[in-house]
Write a structure and sequence with these properties.
single chain; 131 residues; mainly alpha; 4 helices; 83% helix; rod-shaped
Length: 131
């Protein structure tokens, strides 16, 4: 009985070794790797199937989008700068107008002083001559 078990074990060992290292074992192993997720040797049919091509398209679109966003932000900054500059110019113009108005309009103190001086002179003269 022991000899029979040893004979069966030897036969099983030979079959397993033949399957593992015999002719055609490399092809079977390659098929097994492809199914499991090993190296895949597929042919690219066109540019839409090429992952590198698709990646380059995505990169180019991303860069174009970032460039558009950068230009929009730059345009917004320049518009804000133009608006600030226009506000500054308007404020300067208002200030110049106020300064010009102050310089051309006689001051109330001088006007009142002139009136008092002219009234005092005329009343003073009449007071002197009448006395």
């Amino acid at each position: 009985m022991g000899r029979l078990i040893i004979l069966i074990l030897v036969i099983v060992t030979v079959v397993v070794l033949w399957r593992a290292f015999g002719p055609g074992s490399a092809a079977r192993a390659a098929k097994g790797r492809d199914r499991v997720g090993g190296t895949e040797h597929r042919q690219v049919a066109g540019p839409e199937d090429d992952p590198d091509f698709l990646w380059e398209i995505r990169k180019r679109r991303f860069k174009e989008q970032r460039e558009k966003e950068r230009l929009a932000a730059e345009e917004l900054r320049s518009a804000e700068a133009r608006a600030r500059d226009a506000e500054r110019r308007a404020a300067e113009a208002e200030q110049k107008a106020r300064d010009a108005e102050k310089n051309t309009r006689p001051r109330q103190d001088e006007t009142l002083r002139d009136r008092h001086d002219s009234d005092g002179e005329s009343s003073g003269e009449t007071g002197r001559t009448g006395a």
